Amino acid sequence: MTTPQDLDAHFRQAVAELAGADPSPAPADVPQVAPDQRDAETQRDAETPDGAEARESVAVEGGTGSEESAGSAASAASAASAGSAASAASAGTATDAGEASTGDPRSQVADDGAYGALRPLRDPAGPVRDGTALTGALARELVDAQIVSRHLDLAARWLHSFGEGYDTVGSAGHEGNAAVAAALRPTDPVLLHHRSQAFYCRRAMEVAAVAPEAGTPDDPALPALHAARDLLRTVVGSAQALPVGARQKVFTDPALAVLPTGTSLAGHLPRAAGVAFAVERLRRQSAAARRGAAAPVSPWPADAIVACSFGDTGLNHAATTAALNTAGWCDQNGVRLPLLLICEDNGLGPGLRSPQGWAAAVLRSRPGLRYFDADGTDLAATYDAATEAAGWVRRERRPAVLHLRTVRLMGHDGADNEAGYRLADEIRADRERDPLLAAFRLLVEAGLATAEELADRYDALGWRFREIAEEVIGEPKPIEIAEIVGPQAPRRPVRVSRAVTEAATRAAGPGAAARLSAFDGELPEKRGTLTLAQSINAALADALLDHPAMTVFGADVAATGGAHGVTRGLRDRFGGGRVFDTVGDQTSLLGLALGAGAAGLLPVPEIGNLAQLGAGLELLRDAVTTRQLSAGGVRSPLVLRMPGLAHPDSADGTPVENSVAALRDIPGLVIAVPARAEDATGMLRSCLAAAAVDGSVCVFLEPVAAYGTRDLHADGDDGWCARYPAPGEWGTAHVPIGRARSYGFGSAEDLTIVTFGNGVRMSLRVAQQLAGEGVGTRVVDLRWLAPLPVADLIREAAVTGRVLVVDETRRSGGVGEGVLAALVDAGYVGAARRVAAVDGFVPLGPAARAMLISEETITQGARTLLAR
């Protein structure tokens, strides 16, 4: 495999050859000196005669370095990448005796040089070569970003060899993407895959250049070094890393308009489509705002475009297919989507190859997607293609893909033995296409720099990076749980409650007239008792009135009111800009939602039923991790509505699902299950307020069997309906996240039934029957499956000392397991029993009733428990 030493030695030799003469011998391998064997400073000065002077000339603020063992390891690592390039290049430029070099050293090279005897000196403000828009001055800046990215890769590998680096996936061979960053605007939001490091460094330089309050850095590469320092902190697991406790190196910084990509491979592509959708939607709404309508404010300029990079093997992932399909679907339907997808194609994955020409064939064949391509190792060609592609997307507001052919140097990561699946000649050929070496050659051929100057620059940035590495390696590591999981899902219940109260004040006061108009003069609180479905519809309408940034969407949500008519009439009231139909794919739907949330909207998507969620689970997981990966800088607020749980009498044959195990396994996710209309409105308002206030990601799981149910104990009693609360009652009807509801029958001291969803109505009916037999029962409706209302659960269990858990999900992995575990963890010593659905998929009709819980099984479980 290509080691950091191999790559650096080859690079030094190639730079020396670029200078026009044979290089001085370079060591075949950089000695890996153990930290306790030699002082790193002494080692560096011994390997580089001018090391002491170089160290003084590149001192960076706060970079005195640590002389502890870990710091010395970092010193040795950086010294390996920075120590000899300048001296090797200088040795390679010595002229033969009698051949005096005259004039500007950038105007000519030795007669036996590789690039001819005479070379004109180009104007730095002009093109770096004929036929390109890339100027010499900009090319020099891009090379700085490329150098910093390369040193970060080398340092990560070295630190890993000493047990101090934990993410060795690098960008070596992909540094040409710095030119893509230059072709975009620093205010264009981007989502970057794991090999877009040079892009990230270049974006940091661009933002610093347009931020006058930051001042002019002493070195134009300093912002890139600072960005690389933040990345190195994630590599070593520092407590000062931007995403503390990150599982990978993360490119994210809201100040740079770089959004986190999450942890699922290719999952950021559907989200990028969502951001692009939101950017265009916000652009149009801002035009409406200028005419006096209320509208949310976009965090980016109105003409911004969204860029998203990914690797060629990402084309094999379902999330990529969903994103490409969404882009084409939007374009075919006239929906503007200013999205530039960037495929960085090195033809390889971890331990595998992509078929020859596969990426080009796939990308060229996608309908509604404009195709651009370039040699990603050629800085000028990449810049020109990226400029053309970005300009087209910005002008047309339509999606395009830029296909960059790159190489991969040093394998996929530090553990990848690419020699096991690649020929040595292939690996050597890739090294010859090194984009950093190609960029050096471009500047030398243009007469804008000599090889010696570029080698000096490579070394100088290397020494600076070495000091940064020493600083970072000595930083403390996070050890407190709160440090790691704190940013994941913050909970501020007081602010959420206040937000609900303030919404009520607006609805009853300045918004009263608009509310009356939206409900066509018939307010929902004046309509008598409403079913669960009717109550949710009214609550959504009130929320759309109060949240200008809220959008409701999904398959058939606008046209027909969704799978069960819950959103019927909302588009007519609030317009197609806020209530609209989308492509039916769940991955695409959640991608749109996550992107909309990152852009500042409040998305409320609907998935047709719980059984369809599987394809979108990785996006839902990414939604929760977004806040943690950006240290709270980027949020993905979301309230996902889904009909679900058991419904054996489905008239349309739609598969039903009663398992929520995959949802409960996502840390930080809020799962609400309203059993009845009386709770649904307050719980929905709590979810919406939490999403707006805390950026919470919520799943609002609606028991489909209860949508139209009206009666509780007897036909016509309307006991399962409820009057819709007027705005003045919203505060008292508020349902805090993680709080249960209890019902008492008789003395309520003999038995506690813990349940949720459809189990609540059945348990209440059983409790009334038991009360007639003199058994006092309390029924606890959990209402929230995550976070579980543990305090309420323990209190209610302790009253009776007998707990029956009624769980309509499966026995294995069901909610009941979590409830019983919570009781045990709290030291509960009473009797406990559960009834749950049978492990298996739910069929339709009578067969389903044999699989699911019923009033009979609940009654039997209660009697068994009471008999103990």
Helix content: 40-55%
| Uncertain ranges | 21-119
* Helix/strand/pairing category: alpha/beta
Beta-strand content bin: 5-15%
Find the count of extended strands (DSSP E, 2+ residues).
22
Termini separation (Å)? 68 Å
Quaternary structure: single chain
The biggest sheet amounts to:
6 strands, parallel
List keywords for this structure.
single chain; 868 residues; alpha/beta; 6-stranded parallel β-sheet; 12% strand; elongated
List the SSEs and their pairings:
Blueprint: H1 4-18, H2 40-47, H3 51-57, H4 69-82, H5 85-91, H6 136-161, H7 178-183, E1 190-191, H8 197-209, H9 222-236, E2 258-259, H10 268-289, E3 306-311, H11 318-332, E4 339-345, E5 348-349, E6 352-353, H12 358-365, E7 370-375, H13 379-396, E8 400-405, H14 424-432, H15 435-445, H16 451-473, H17 481-485, H18 493-508, H19 512-518, E9 529-530, H20 532-546, E10 550-554, H21 570-574, E11 579-581, H22 586-598, E12 602-606, H23 617-629, E13 638-644, H24 661-664, E14 670-672, H25 677-694, E15 697-703, E16 722-723, E17 741-745, E18 751-755, H26 758-771, E19 777-781, E20 784-786, H27 790-800, E21 802-810, H28 815-825, E22 831-837, H29 846-851, H30 855-866
Parallel strand pairs: 1-2, 1-3, 3-4, 4-8, 7-8, 10-11, 10-12, 13-15, 14-15, 18-19, 18-21, 21-22
Antiparallel strand pairs: 5-6, 9-16, 14-20, 17-19
